[in-house]
Design a protein that fits this description.
The chain is an alpha+beta fold. The protein is 52% helix and 18% strand. It contains 16 helices and 16 strands. The protein has helices at residues 2-11, 16-35, 40-65, 73-103, 112-133, 138-155, 157-171, 212-217, 247-260, 298-315, 334-353, 363-372, 428-433, 454-463, 467-487, 491-513; strands at residues 180-183, 186-193, 197-201, 207-211, 220-224, 233-242, 273-279, 283-292, 374-378, 383-385, 393-399, 402-407, 414-420, 425-426, 440-443, 447-453. The strands form four sheets. A five-stranded antiparallel sheet has the order 4-3-2-1-5. Strands 9-16-11-14 form a four-stranded antiparallel sheet. A four-stranded antiparallel sheet has the order 10-15-12-13, with no helix packed on it.
């Protein structure tokens, strides 16, 4: 065995020290394969080259032991191949240590293509040095290699152009892995940059392969840069309304709807806005603009923004503009309009009848209020009323579901305390006394409400001032019943509190509506 080891050392033309280093590198490679899974592909090739090189030296040593002369061609072929393989494998392991364990933590690691170029230059340099050490004529090898390289380069011009394009992209870092880009009409996230091509994954999950030569020669729009910060891209939703609608009213309504409670995927900063983009012969063109946080989720976010815009315009009684050449094919006659009006009137009367506070009202008074109701809609997630706000509106839910949320402390977390379904109403204290909103109400689905304002109810109270007393008793009884259930009040305490509450509520209603 010792004789074989001596022959192996003799077969290694680079000396025993090189052989010891090669064995040590093999042990290090096996260790790195266990602790560094990301480099297993490169380490697997290095391991094969190390095992092949050491096996070649062992076979060459065995041939020497069998009496083969050191100048024989089979021996020299084995020895030279083994030495070059071991030297190249050492360059590979050194590259892993340098790029992954030294430059990586310092964030100085060069791009992938540049790393490959550095390693390739190292392979060439080491191969030339080893061949020179082994006594080969390196000049003839270089001359032959140059001629072969020129011939290959001439025949592979397009491929080399793509390779050079990929090198330029990675060296100047204009496009990096993870960036969102647009090339021609294709948008997607860069998933891989290789020597010849760049792959991007579109929002539909398709992988588009683009030659680097095309990227280097065409216009590339970087929608979002993967530089450690949140990737955002501004989106614009266009819509048209008639010229007769005040521009400021549209902008204010849309911005309030988008900023009050941002939709999923919308960035809070910068805030969404609405701008007038164009003026046509029959309409104004607006753009609701917002910043998208997840570029792969554009369609759902755009859809939610469109729903917010529609709901905001409906709340202020604004419809979308129609082309000037539209033709009404089936005009509505007077009978049809009367039927539609009667249907809507009955619907409003049913909504008013569901409000217990309006029980003292006569049918004529309910009919007068029905004419003053305004239909308003909200999209999911939109704030209907906010705790602490002052707005003299009573809301009656006729479609959808809304959640009631209460915040105990200013700036603290809120909690959901109730659900409002069709037939429910809220805001009676704001309508009758001007009290601030005691809770936040958020639409949990598409919600439609009738709302009644102070001015509309004032006409009814002025026509019958005594109605204020009846309504104050209903409000006071409702509040005292809640207090009695919560505090477990006795009958006498309940009666006294009811008297005080009725007097206080009547005074607040008269003061708010100036009925003195």
């Amino acid at each position: 065995m010792l004789e074989l080891v001596r022959h192996v050392e003799e077969a290694c033309a680079l000396g025993g020290g090189f052989l010891s280093v090669s064995i040590g590198m093999l042990c290090l490679t096996l260790l790195l394969r266990r602790i560094h899974p990301a480099a297993r592909g490169r380490l697997r090739v290095a391991t094969l080259m190390q095992v092949a090189g050491l096996a070649g030296l062992v076979i060459a040593g065995a041939l020497l032991g069998l009496g083969l002369e050191g100048g024989a061609f089979p021996f020299r072929l084995l020895r030279d191949t083994a030495d070059v393989s071991l030297a190249v494998s050492i360059v590979t392991i050194s590259g892993v240590l340098l790029f992954d364990y030294v430059l990586g933590p310092l964030r100085l690691r060069p791009p992938g293509i540049l790393t490959d170029l550095i390693l390739a230059a190292g392979y060439v340099a080491v191969t030339i040095l080893v061949l020179a050490k082994l006594g080969h004529d390196v000049s003839s090898v270089l001359t032959t290699g140059a001629i072969a390289t020129a011939a290959i380069g001439f025949s592979l011009q397009d491929t080399l152009r793509s390779v050079m394009g990929g090198m330029s992209l990675q060296i100047d870092r204009s496009v990096s892995q993870g960036d969102w880009i647009r090339v021609d009409s294709t948008e997607g996230r860069v998933s891989e940059i290789r020597w010849r091509r760049t792959s991007i994954v579109t929002r539909d999950g398709n992988t588009v392969v683009i030659p680097n030569a095309h990227l280097a020669s065409t216009l590339v729009t970087i929608l979002g840069k993967n530089d450690g910060r949140e990737v955002q891209s501004r989106r614009s939703i266009y819509f048209e309304v008639d010229h007769g609608v005040p521009t400021g009213e549209v902008i204010a309504a849309v911005e309030a709807a988008l900023r009050g409670n941002p939709v999923r995927g919308m960035a809070v900063t910068p805030p969404a806005d609405c701008v007038l983009m164009d003026l046509r012969s029959g309409w104004q063109t607006f753009a609701a603009r917002y910043w998208l946080r997840n570029l792969a989720d554009d369609a759902p976010s755009d859809s939610a923004v469109r729903a917010r815009v529609i709901a905001a315009l409906q709340r202020i009684g604004v419809g979308f503009s129609f082309p000037s050449h539209s033709v009404l094919l089936h005009p509505k006659d007077a009978r049809h309009l009367d039927l539609a009006h009667e249907h809507e009137r009955q619907r409003r009367l049913r909504a008013l009848a569901s409000v217990a506070l309006f029980a003292p009202l006569t049918s004529e008074e309910l009919a007068a209020l029905a004419e003053r109701l305004r239909l308003t809609t909200f999209s999911p997630g939109e704030v209907i009323t906010r705790q602490g706000a002052t707005a003299n509106w009573l809301y009656i839910v006729v479609r959808g579901v809304a959640g009631v949320r209460v915040t105990a402390d200013a700036g603290g977390p809120d909690r959901r305390v109730a659900s409002l379904e069709p037939g429910s109403f809220f805001g009676e204290m704001a309508l009758l006394t001007g009290a601030p909103r005691s809770a936040t109400v958020i639409a949990e689905s598409d919600v439609s409400c009738y709302k009644l304002d102070k001015e509309s109810f004032l006409d009814v109270l002025q026509a019958r001032p005594g109605l204020a007393e009846e309504i104050s008793r209903l409000l006071a009884r409702r509040r005292v019943e809640l207090d009695a259930a919560r505090e477990q009040l006795g009958e006498e305490a309940r009666r006294k509190r009811l008297e005080v509450a009725e007097h206080d509520m009547l005074a607040r209603i008269r003061n708010f509506f100036r009925l003195h």
